[in-house]
Write a structure and sequence with these properties.
The chain is mainly α. Helices cover 73% and strands 3% of the residues. It has a two-stranded antiparallel sheet. Helix 1 crosses helix 13 and helix 12 runs antiparallel to helix 13. The termini are far apart.
């Protein structure tokens, strides 16, 4: 027993050291930094001094309309992006898993390739495709009588969602496809023998059996959505873009730190965003856990006695 404990300690120590260095220490430093602010003495000609302000930075962040509106943007982004991502990735995985699919390896690679492109490069590509004076896509749309400004207040959010979908659809499709491939083929064969068609098998057999993967991808997507930063930051550089420098909470913290040199406010905004992500993750985990527990508590269908089965066969 001692040997097992010693082996587990040796194997887990590097992980906990790395976890402490890259997670615990930065979070603790951010919390500590959020309790202080730098003020200039006198009329601004003297040096700056760090002053303990308690929760003043949190009050300032929550009282700033731009910070609160950033959460509104995230809410709209999540309501539009998450359903499209889950439905699209699951639909593509079901198509690849179907018996009619051909060249599966090719389409897996083709759909996954956009994820291999770094986010900032993908955003730059799409900014080019969104710019009316440069984009062949916009020119083709205008030639067809379709006018849409991707940088307008109405078009900014769909533009960001489109970039994120292009990046992450194939990645999550691979996760769902792996889960579908892990389903016992005998279950699908039994459903086919019972007369279930392709649609019935997909919705009544396959999707219920990959609910765990759906919950996992949904949780990670929510956390990733709250960290929205790269795509709107690049779109902010577009001509006449409605994406401001404080469009999302992450951009608000970035602007506070590197444009206004207010590191206390930036740290407070980051901590508030982290707390929001933690609360949402906890809520999603509890909801999925309750559903699993409810499904486990459902009584199994009662089997008919063996005598009854014998009488029927007789």
């Amino acid at each position: 027993m001692k040997a097992r404990t010693r082996a587990a300690t040796i194997l887990l120590t590097p992980f906990f050291l790395l976890f402490t260095a890259v997670m615990v220490v930065p979070i603790g430093y951010a919390v500590w930094l959020s309790l202080f602010t730098e003020k200039q003495s006198g009329l601004g000609f003297g040096g700056t001094e760090t002053v303990f302000t308690g929760l003043d930075n949190y009050t300032a962040a929550l009282g700033d309309r731009a910070f609160r509106e950033g959460f509104g943007v995230l809410l709209g982004y999540c309501l539009l992006y998450i359903p499209l991502l889950l439905a699209g990735a699951l639909g593509l995985a079901l198509l690849l898993d179907s018996a009619l699919a051909r060249a599966r390896r090719f389409f897996q690679l083709a759909l996954f390739l956009p994820h291999a492109v770094p986010g900032i490069i993908a955003a730059l590509i799409w900014v080019y495709l969104y710019t009316p004076q440069l984009s062949p896509v916009v020119q083709a749309m205008e030639a067809g009588g379709i006018g849409f400004d991707f940088f307008s207040p109405e078009g900014a959010l769909p533009s960001v969602v489109n970039i994120a979908l292009w990046e992450w659809l194939g990645y999550n499709m691979v996760i769902f496809y792996a889960a579908l491939q892990a389903i016992d083929r005998s279950v699908l064969e039994a459903a086919t023998v019972d007369g279930a068609g392709a649609w019935r098998i997909a919705f009544s057999v396959k999707i219920p059996l990959v609910k765990a993967s759906l919950a996992m991808v949904g949780l990670f997507t929510i956390i990733g959505s709250l960290q929205l930063f790269t795509e709107p930051l690049i779109l902010n550089k577009g001509t006449g873009s409605a994406v401001t420098s404080t469009w999302t909470p992450n951009m608000y913290a970035y602007t506070a730190a590197f444009d206004r040199n207010d590191y206390g406010l930036a740290a407070a905004a980051s901590v508030l965003l982290a707390l929001t992500a933690a609360l949402l993750s906890f809520a999603v985990t509890r909801v999925t856990g309750r559903r699993k527990a409810g499904a486990a508590r459902k009584p199994a269908p009662a089997r008919k006695p063996a005598t009854a089965r014998k009488e029927r066969t007789a």
